[in-house]
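Hey, resending since the last one bounced:
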Amino acid sequence: MLKKLTAFLTAAVMVTSVASIPVLTSYADTNSTTEKRVMEKLDRGTVAVKTNGGVYLSWRLLGTESLTNQAFDIYRDSEKIYTTGEHDATCYTDSKGTADNKYTVVPKGEAIDKTEAVDVWTTNTTYKGRSVAYKDIAFKVPDGGKTPTDEEYTYTANDMSVGDLDGDGEYEYIVKWDPSNSKDNSDMGYTGKVYLDAYELDGTLLWRIDLGVNIRAGAHYTQYMVYDFDGDGKSEVILKTAPGSKDGEGNYVSKAGKNITKGDDAKDYRNSSGLLMDKDGGPEYLTVFNGETGAAMQTVDFDPPRSILTSSEWGDSYANRSERYLAAVAYLDGVHPSVVMTRGYYTYVYAAAYTWDGTDLKEQWLSTNTPTEENGGTGCTVKYADGTSKNNTNKTLYAQGAHSVSVADVDNDGYDEIIFGSAVLDHDGTVLTYDGRGHGDAEHVSDFDNDGKQEIFMAHEAGKHNADIIPYAVDIKRYNGDIMLQAAKGDIGRGIMDNVDDEYALSSGNLSLFWSVAADGIYNQAGKKVGDIPNTNGSKMENFAVYWDGDLGRELLDGNKLVKYSIKSGAERIYYNRKNETLPGSINNGTKSNACLTADLFGDWREEIVLRHDDGVRIYFSTIPTDYRLTTLMHDSQYRCAIAWQNVGYNQPPHTSYYIGSAALAKDSNGNALNYLAPNTSFTEVTYPDTSSITPRPTIKTTPEPVSVYVTPDADTYLVDGTTAHGSDEELKINQATDCYSSTSPGLKDIKGLGLIRFDLSKYAGKKLTSATLKLYDKFTNTEKRNSDLYLDYCSKNDWDEATVTINDIKTRGENTPLSSLDLQVSPAYNVDYKEISFDVTDVIKEKCTDNLITFTLWTGTGREQVIASKEYSGTDAQGPTLVLEFEGEEPTPTPTVVPTATPTLKPTATPTVVPTATPTLKPTPTPTVVPTATPTLKPTPTPTVVPTATPTLKPTATPTVVPTATPTLKPTATPTVVPAVNPTLKPTATPAVTSTLKPTTIPTAIPTATPNLANNKITAMINSNNKLDVTLDFENVDMNDVNVYVAFKNNGKLVGMKMPQASELKGIDLIDKEYTDIEVYAWDNKQKPYANIVRIVNNVQ
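The structure tokens again:
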């Protein structure tokens, strides 16, 4: 399929002058693959920077353009000022330029009307004539928090990646937020949640993904791949998720699930050590997110789950080996990108490859790696999507992995391989090569000697070479055998290999140098020590390398220290404000000392350095002119894949597939070096995605949108003895019972407090239930600081009356008892006020709710009492039991109405809106279809259910709207929101004004929670002399830009009109023409929390 290299020049060339040298018509004439790879369609990436010499300009040469024959026109303020030569470097200094100019660079002869002019950067520093420019991006730092053990944590920006998320040719910036208590896998303890943000270069936040409590924070857990996987011109984001993970639109990723293992999105699956262990750690998912919106497009089960092996089989009892993840993007078919996710590398290794076609995340193969047959295992077994499999008992990834991966076509067959430490995973999931040297930290892969083949440099922790056991080593090898080996002492956590001294490489023929943190010097590829290791404030500079100063050698980067190295002169610290300073900015990952990202982000082929700075990042950009002309490194597929995997594990620098150095420069017919490369490894032949036939991406999932309803019990109580009923109590006092669920003596005995909770689900008969979660508020006080498990079981007896039922009415033990075990339990924290807990009761309801009634029982296994808020609970710090049901498709009501009960919501959710689904099936009625109850009271009713509609669901949008349309509008089209009424109870007074005194009535929220304190804020409303409504907000410490005001007009309880004035337009609000009896005024924040109690005007008088 690919690529034996040919001579780059076959015809004689006459040399007359540099400008008129006949050169090749395209870089494809020097080296090319037979298959084009689908890659990003990038824009020109022009950067203009004010320097002492004028304005420095730098721009991309794209992979689809000629390396040898493409000139560019440069415009200043729409006036052409210069045309470059056909193979000039893609940089230029305008000596007459100022900071006020705008610049445009286009291919010679192309109009500029389709290319946006760029402003001049003025953030620039110079040292010894060497200049460094920078661009700051301000981030929005997530709020810190506390762990279940009350440990406080905060957030800093960590690893980053880039992708063209919106298809405009410019990169967006994706950042992982690291909590201050993130952990290595070997450390126990809770961590804060992990967030993933996407930003434009100007600091605009596009979305935030919340991975939830069931994804642990640390370098080895969250590896996220940003790439255009489906060829629609926009990058997606793929990463591991779990129950409780929320996408960029605030939805649980489980809602986008395709045949996933059902979990409880409200449950914390961590154990008391903060670890996710075995089956108790809950389901694990892999989710593909829409890069433009952050919406989860599809979620599948992560393959395989951690429970595929027991803790002892993994080799530890603290979730270390089972929770080591790596990830990569690779062109496994030679043309299109796939994502590869792996689990484990110290012992067992599992690797799965997926494709995303815009609709389905499909697993291509799963590679399972055990010890070789010689060592008592089965080697590598690969299972494919078509049901076939392969097995090789003599090769394996088992115990060979590093803390990172690399991707390259190491065997020149046109398909990418995954370099997995001391083994190489072939494109089909089999093991291509296995040398048995074992685990290591760092690896580098490129054509380091310009021979047309990839070399692998690796720093090992331990292993063997031939028959000799060596404690630690670094080696250079081909995929099928070693070139050389260097032994060294110590745990070699870092090593570097590259062309870091181009002058030496050209003169000696040894094209790359290498060393490690444990080496005694710098070595060439012949194994000869040729120089001393750099020592820069204790750093041996063996970490990263970047192209910076314009020559073809690579500079060294360790954290924020940037060094130019040569064998002759040693290390020279350069590009700072003053000598020996570091680049301003912070480093990541402790001793690993990484920047957030290094990559060729814009401008010519040199790389940018992204460091954490203040609350965001600073992108450093070289303004040193270069004489050399290279295509953007981001159009070399090996380098571009490396940018995708750079955030994985212990970050490693990216490398191109070809050698960069003077030894690889093209030459004219007289043997004179030209200013562009003709290496012995093929350039990537780039093609852009064909977006003409791309179908629109799903926003959430391809199946019908599920609908959630919230059901409260029709009865609840607790049983203690045979004389007293507790159905009217506000709290269920749950206490000890003895578990006797056996075939001979089923049930419970010695009961001291048995809870009963019954739900009537007749309204939902016939609907397809997808999930059911029972939510309770539990209070557990225990001075002994000892936990007490709370058990949830099932009772088949439903004909009980909460007003009279006692322990005598329920047969709790022995033959024919209605009680049966569900094996469901939680361990609430002790000495806490009310805290929400939950049980997944999906299977219970599907199997046991035969007469549309379901009764649950609650008991504890100890004498330590737990208190559950009952449906009669009147406090504001908790609410009664709630059964959250999720159905597939439409909600089972005959008309699209939202019917709130009289019970006030305890904590309103995000935004007071009713948002239509993607494909509404019901036509809007001429009058509002949101009908509150006729006579709500201020006291909760027995059944305070909130039932969403069949078509409009309760989701936050930017602006409330209620009319279902094919494309939901942002402006209200009918009568938005749901506002219940109460009958007039106040006597009229002479002045039609009222000050807010009533608590909020029921408002259609998805999850009612606790009421905020409204004591300090007031709403006043009155009808003025011009028969218009004046509203006054008297709020303390409130940003009025965050206030959403709603004015509801009702006629005897029926909503007939709605206005939503801006906070600046509250005087002289026009009344509606329709007949109404009362007006209600609400003020909510953007999270649907009321700022003040509702105010009401009845018949235009108080």
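The two ends are 84 Å apart (CA to CA).

Sorry for the duplicate.
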